[in-house]
Amino acid sequence: MSKRSFILRGELVHKAVRPSQADADFAFHAFAFKADEDRFARGLMDRRTELWLFRSNQRAYCGDFLAVDMPSPWPARRRSHVIELKRGMPVRVGGGAVGLQLRNAANAVQGLAQQGDVLGAEAAYVTVSGDGAAIVEMFARGARLSAGRGGAPPRTPHLGWP
Question: How far apart, in whole angstroms, are the C-alpha atoms of residue 44 and residue 46?
């Protein structure tokens, strides 16, 4: 998607929803992409077209993105990944070394599951953190993120607020 088409779509959404200036400012700052995040998202979408990528609220401590592996027709069987980008950091699967940035990951996954038919109600997830280019390469190789080298089994989110 070109930058111009993204801006035009944003204008259409703005006209349809008509948010207040405060709501529009909040949404912009909570969901805007930085250059390295845009590069990551485009790189991942180019290499793994079966993934759906969702931008996380940057003020909610739930990672930068949620990626859902969509090949299964059954939402309950889809794998999800909460991704936190840290420039220059080695890739870590299953958490660690990202401070508070993933503390509400379960809430983000549960929120996406409640939206409808993307994830099942008891959606499990794996956290992935590290350099964006390295994460794209890991996904491009088809790495199974639920087990193996430093991985952790998928976690089922709890329903309470942390």
Answer: 5
pTM of the model: 0.71
DSSP 8-state secondary structure symbol assigned to residue 71: -
DSSP character for 72?
S
Strand, coil or helix: 29: helix
Q: Environment class of residue 96 by beta-carbon count within 10 Å: exposed (0-12), middle (13-18) or buried (19+)?
A: exposed
Q: How far apart are CA 98 and CA 78, in angstroms?
A: 25
For tokens 């997830």, name the residue. 125
Non-local (6+) Cβ contacts of 61 within 8 A are: 100, 101, 102, 103, 104
How big is the CA angle at 16 (ends 15 and 20), to the nearest 5 degrees? Answer: 65
User: Where is average pLDDT lowest: 24-28, 66-70, 141-145, 154-158?
Assistant: 154-158
Query: Would strands 79-85 and 92-93 be described as parallel, antiparallel, or unpaired?
Result: unpaired
- Provide the edge-to-edge strand list for the sheet that holds 125-130: 51-55, 65-69, 79-85, 125-130, 92-93
Q: Residue 48: helix, strand or coil by DSSP?
A: coil
